[in-house]
Amino acid sequence: MKVAQHIKYDKHNIALALKEVDQPNIKPHQVLVKVTAAGVNPLDNMISRGEVKMIVPYKIPQTAGNELVGRIEKVGAEVSNFAVGERVFARLPLESIGAFAEYVAVDAQALAKVPENLSDVEAAAIPLTALTIMQALDLMQVRAGQTIFISGGTGGVGAMAIPIAKAKGLTVITNGSGENAERVIALGADRFIDFKKEDYTTLLSEIDFVLDTLGGAETQKQMTIMKKGGHLVSLRGMPNGDFARRMKLPKWKQILLGLAGRKWDKMAEKYGVHYHFIFVKSDGKQLQEAANLLSQAQVKPSIDTVYPFEEINLALDKVANGRSRGKTVIRF
Ligand SMILES: NC(=O)c1ccc[n+]([C@@H]2O[C@H](COP(=O)([O-])OP(=O)(O)OC[C@H]3O[C@@H](n4cnc5c(N)ncnc54)[C@H](OP(=O)(O)O)[C@@H]3O)[C@@H](O)[C@H]2O)c1
């Protein structure tokens, strides 16, 4: 079967190699999925550039790709909740990525069933982003009636985060470019701030939670609008010691990331809030919950471009360099 692999870590080259390899054998707790589509993410390029080696040190060559949709071809002896022929999707487990392949052996615990209202291409755009939001909201321990500020909510993360946060009963405030205001309000946002015209730090205060999709100087600015004791989860900030312990990384990495993230922990302390970083993990149960919420809210991800598998490197380049209006997906 055909696969696309990371063959070396290179800061300046994100191209994958197309290869022929044997079809995988499944273990008793796995199913064999015939892949029909796979989401392409900035994370795939970050892995190529060696930027996440500290969190997940893949041995090269490594088949690339973090999320997929497909049909079940075989079911392992210990798997009772999935059957041959079912349409499933997943964010693959961190230690066994490899969605850019014609067949993938997937741990049944990572899988969820695809809601009927979604095409394969639409479904491929959901797992990584939806799970990111579910895991961020879990960490914040949100309760209905509280308020969340989602920075850069006009992007791919926002498109999933806004409806999921609304379904959990939160009041949602977000920002981005004014041209996207209408689309974001239609997703359920209660308030939109055009970051090019208005300064949210002068408009907002006493916010319970922040989902920071921007990082950099924005992280500190977002802390200034929060209620004391509030939680900020960053998707682009710096990992810290708490993150390393949560991920059960080796002791030396816990110490190193503890030092690297100290600046943000101190900053959070100054504003009386909690700072967290997350790296999205696989979780079939949580994905099923998110998929059901999105399907009830009748929300579909917006798709930018679909490439055939053979053009995977064009898809990765688009994610790295193109101005995106939605998800890039490859189809098999
Ligand atoms: N840690 C994790 O596990 C994890 C998981 C998923 C994603 N991520 C990361 O999360 C980040 C966001 O992902 P995404 O898919 O949402 O990216 P995206 O689609 O590129 O969206 C980013 C959005 O931010 C807006 N923006 C840019 N500068 C802004 C500013 N100063 N103020 C307000 N809005 C601003 C842009 O708005 P306009 O286009 O409207 O100008 C754009 O819509 C990426 O870096 C991704 O790698 C991390």
Topology readout:
Layout lengths: L1 E5 L10 E4 L9 E11 L1 H7 L13 E2 L3 E9 L11 E5 L11 E5 L3 E3 L6 H5 L2 H14 L6 E4 L5 H12 L3 E6 L4 H6 L4 E4 L5 H4 L3 E6 L4 H7 L2 E9 L6 H6 L4 H10 L1 H10 L2 E4 L6 H13 L6 E6 L3 H10 L5 E5 L1
Parallel strand pairs: 9-10, 9-12, 10-11, 12-13, 13-14, 15-16
Antiparallel strand pairs: 1-2, 1-4, 3-5, 3-7, 3-16, 5-6, 6-8
This protein binds NADP nicotinamide-adenine-dinucleotide phosphate.
Plain-language structure description:
- The longest helix has 14 residues, at 127-140.
- The protein is of the alpha/beta class.
- The protein has helices spanning 42-48, 120-124, 127-140, 156-167, 181-186, 200-203, 217-223, 241-246, 251-260, 262-271, 284-296, 312-321, and strands spanning 2-6, 17-20, 30-40, 62-63, 67-75, 87-91, 103-107, 111-113, 147-150, 171-176, 191-194, 207-212, 226-234, 274-277, 303-308, 327-331.
- Strands 3, 5, 6, 7, 8, 15 and 16 form a 7-stranded mixed sheet that branches.
- Residues 42, 129, 132, 151-152, 154-158, 175-177, 180, 195, 213-214, 235-236, 278-280, 324 line the site of NADP nicotinamide-adenine-dinucleotide phosphate.
